[in-house]
Automatic annotation (TrEMBL):
<dbReference type="InterPro" id="IPR016177">
    <property type="entry name" value="DNA-bd_dom_sf"/>
</dbReference>
<dbReference type="Pfam" id="PF01429">
    <property type="entry name" value="MBD"/>
</dbReference>
<dbReference type="InterPro" id="IPR036047">
    <property type="entry name" value="F-box-like_dom_sf"/>
</dbReference>
<dbReference type="InterPro" id="IPR001810">
    <property type="entry name" value="F-box_dom"/>
</dbReference>
<dbReference type="InterPro" id="IPR001739">
    <property type="entry name" value="Methyl_CpG_DNA-bd"/>
</dbReference>
<dbReference type="GO" id="GO:0003677">
    <property type="term" value="F:DNA binding"/>
</dbReference>
<dbReference type="InterPro" id="IPR052283">
    <property type="entry name" value="GenomicStab_NeuMorph_Reg"/>
</dbReference>
<feature type="compositionally biased region" description="Gly residues">
    <location>
        <begin position="254"/>
        <end position="263"/>
    </location>
</feature>
<feature type="compositionally biased region" description="Polar residues">
    <location>
        <begin position="190"/>
        <end position="207"/>
    </location>
</feature>
<protein>
    <submittedName>
        <fullName>Putative leucine rich repeat some</fullName>
    </submittedName>
</protein>
<dbReference type="InterPro" id="IPR032675">
    <property type="entry name" value="LRR_dom_sf"/>
</dbReference>
<feature type="domain" description="F-box">
    <location>
        <begin position="286"/>
        <end position="332"/>
    </location>
</feature>
<dbReference type="Pfam" id="PF12937">
    <property type="entry name" value="F-box-like"/>
</dbReference>
<feature type="compositionally biased region" description="Polar residues">
    <location>
        <begin position="229"/>
        <end position="239"/>
    </location>
</feature>
<feature type="region of interest" description="Disordered">
    <location>
        <begin position="97"/>
        <end position="282"/>
    </location>
</feature>
<feature type="domain" description="MBD">
    <location>
        <begin position="29"/>
        <end position="99"/>
    </location>
</feature>
Length: 691
């Protein structure tokens, strides 16, 4: 008996232990104030419903707590480690229900869904259990069978509404076109923006839609009223501030059918899609995206050539409107383009308000003379053009152009082909401000330059290819009183004639002289430059710099910028000494000096060192050097030999590094650039490249 009693006690004890281990599910009151205590210390709570879940699923969401420092915690152990102040674990709950915090303290949202939306209940509204029947979502509702002999129900008078395509991107209004060619932007169709129903509610309400429209109007009104209370009720405070749970993005159905009205009540799938894309369904947003597409086209069309603009303009009305915008036609460049109808071309330029026409490297559809004849015949029909760059043509074309278009302000003809050049009709360009004439080879002039004297508004004149310009009468240049920049080439005969004209040009700021050799009187020209107080920039390109240069240039105190490219044919050492002396004497006024040394001089100097200097077989370690007559100006090394004042008789090989150090030490306030370029590139050097 005692054994039986002991066995009974053991079984009772085991049952008690099992009962103790069994988890007791005690209902939690999520509205208890104890769960709101963390909000007072800066904690936040986030309730996230799962996107896809079955109707009876217990795991319907996740609960996260966010610390005052912004760290998101999702387990009890994480919360225990972060507890502070008077908080305990009893103040936190992971029940998938709201605890009653305000929108700033508690966020309720649903996870991103690519299928069926989650099932959500609305707290605080009596009689409202859920916004959808998730058990029926995704299931195909069979069409009700009609009895034999029965007539089919009448079709709805309302048109079928387009469905949201799963491949469409409601947030993108512009799509890039592929194909391997030039990228073309197309504005995507946004007809689904104004859609009143979606695929979800179409399946759910298919049975209701089979009923005749206009029946049970009272039930329709009640359904609408119920939907309004569910979505925008004043007691719906637990939905948070998330747009996908608020009723702001709901697109109300405009139809009077039962299916259209019931779609907002019985289908949260429609509510989910509409709310998540609420901003995309706004008509004003559609217009803004069309505007963004228009602006994108404007940016892309900036890269199109003329012929590409014409092709793009024929795509559609929108592209035609963009392609004919004046910003694309303000400057028209015809490089690598054919023009078969100059009349149509000029009419297009006039219509689009072209200001600058660039004909350089244009392709000839026929003979060159015929092209220019047709061009001159029609160019007068575009009086708005102000700037023209001509390709290879004769000076006669330039004269006729100035006569037909007297409003031209800039004419550049840098490939004159006729010899001699003719200035007939040039007097018609009275509004001309810039004129550049150049040829690939020196050309002569027929007569003098008296026609240029009529160009009283001229501010920039460039004549760099007229052979023996100094032997021609250039007195007409003195009438150009507004001239600010003057470029003259082939200055072999220039001297006193230019020196007399320069003081008359009271606005002259820049003077460029090319090929001042043979009979070029450098010293007389420098004396004339010193009398022009406004002249600040002097460019001497391939000009002879002789002994005495430093004594005359020292009087040009008005110069602040100097570009020197001397000819290194003979007496290179004396030339370098004169230039160095001149720079040192103008150290108080010069701001920028560009001294160009040709690569040919560097090679000759290197050959001289290898031939004449006995270095015992040691390689030359001086680097690049140039010859300078002794004594080297600015050098601190004393000389042991007494030289004559004006005629030094010995040469010193000076490395370029030493020359740069002398200039840095003697002219610290002047920016000095020593360039090494081949002789063939000296004609292309300008001061603008180094400003």
């Amino acid at each position: 008996a005692s054994g039986a009693t002991g066995g009974l006690d053991a079984s009772k004890q085991a049952a008690a232990v099992a009962a103790a281990k069994k988890k007791v599910n005690v209902p939690v009151n999520t509205q208890d104030a104890i769960f709101k205590l963390p909000f007072k210390y800066g904690w936040k709570r986030e309730l996230v419903y799962r996107a896809n879940m079955e109707g009876n699923s217990k795991d319907k969401g996740e609960v996260y707590y966010i610390t005052p420092q912004g760290k998101k915690l999702r387990t009890r152990n994480d919360i225990v480690a972060a507890l502070h102040d008077d908080l305990t674990m009893d103040n936190f709950t992971f029940v998938k229900e709201p605890v009653g915090g305000n929108p700033d303290e508690e966020t309720i949202r649903s996870a991103k869904s690519y299928g069926n939306p989650p099932r959500r209940s609305v707290a605080g509204i009596p009689g409202a259990t859920s916004l959808d029947s998730s058990a029926d979502l995704g299931k195909r509702v069979p069409k009700p069978k009609m009895p034999k002999g029965a007539s089919p129900p009448p079709s709805s008078p309302y048109p079928k509404v387009g469905r949201l395509s799963p491949k469409s991107n409601p947030s993108s209004g512009v799509a890039a076109g592929g194909g391997g060619g030039t990228g073309v932007l197309t504005v995507s169709s946004r007809s689904n923006v104004f859609s009143g129903s979606t695929k979800g509610n179409e399946n759910i309400n298919s049975q209701d839609r089979a009923k005749p429209v206009g029946k049970n109007r009272k039930s329709v009104d009640e359904s609408r009223k119920m939907a309004s209370n569910l979505i925008s009720g004043t007691n719906n405070k637990h939905l948070g501030t998330n747009d996908r749970l608020s009723g702001e993005g709901v697109l109300h159905a405009t139809g009077g059918g039962i299916g259209g009205a019931g779609s907002h009540v019985g289908s949260s799938r429609n509510h989910h899609i509409t709310a998540s894309n609420g901003s995309a369904r706004d008509p004003s947003n559609f217009l803004s995206e069309v505007s963004a597409g228009y602006q994108a086209l404007m940016q892309i069309f900036d890269y199109l050539k003329v012929q590409e603009l014409l092709r793009a303009s024929s795509v559609c009305r929108m592209w035609n409107h963009v392609g004919n915008h004046q910003r694309f036609w303000r400057t028209v460049r015809m490089k690598n383009s054919y023009v078969k109808d100059w009349g149509g071309m000029i009419a297009k330029l006039r219509k689009n308000g072209t200001k600058h026409l660039d004909l350089r490297k244009v392709l000839n559809a026929g003979s060159n003379d015929e092209m220019w004849r047709s061009f001159i015949e029609h160019i007068g029909q575009a009086p708005e053009i102000e700037t023209i760059d001509l390709c290879r043509c004769s000076s006669t074309v330039v004269g006729k152009l100035l006569r037909s278009n007297p409003n031209l302000r800039v004419v550049n003809a840098l490939a004159i082909k006729n010899d001699p050049i003719d200035f007939v009709n040039f007097e018609h360009g009275k509004n001309l401000e810039e004129l550049r004439l150049k040829s690939s080879a020196p050309i002569s002039v027929d007569g003098d330059l008296h026609q240029l004297g009529a160009l009283r508004n001229l501010k920039h004149l460039s004549l760099t290819s007229i052979a023996k310009l100094g032997a021609t009468s250039i007195d007409a240049l003195g009438s150009l009183v507004l001239l600010e920049s003057l470029e003259l080439g082939e200055c072999t005969e220039i001297g006193a004639n230019l020196a007399e004209i320069l003081p008359k040009l009271g606005f002259l700021k820049r003077l460029r002289l090319e090929k001042g050799q043979e009979n070029f009187d450098m010293f007389t020209v420098l004396d004339g430059i010193a009398k022009v107080a406004t002249l600040q920039q002097l460019e001497l390109i391939n000009c002879d710099v002789k002994l005495g240069f430093d004594k005359h240039i020292v009087s040009c105190r008005n110069l602040t910028k100097l570009l020197l490219i001397p000819t290194y044919v003979s007496q290179s050492a004396a030339t370098n000494q004169m230039i160095l002396k001149g720079i040192l004497k103008l150290h108080a006024t010069l701001q920028l000096v560009v001294w160009v040394i040709t690569e040919e001089l560097l090679r000759v100097t290197e050959l001289y060192i290898d031939t004449n200097v006995d270095d015992g077989g040691v390689p030359n370690k001086l680097g690049e050097t140039i010859p300078i007559l002794k004594p080297v100006p600015g050098s601190d090394e004393p000389s042991s030999v007494t030289y004559q004042t004006d005629v030094p008789d010995k040469v010193e090989i000076v490395p370029l590094t030493k020359l740069e150090s002398i200039l840095e030490r003697r002219v610290p306030n002047t920016k000095v650039l020593i360039l090494k370029i081949p002789f063939t590139n000296t004609w292309k050097q300008t001061m603008v490249d180094h400003l």
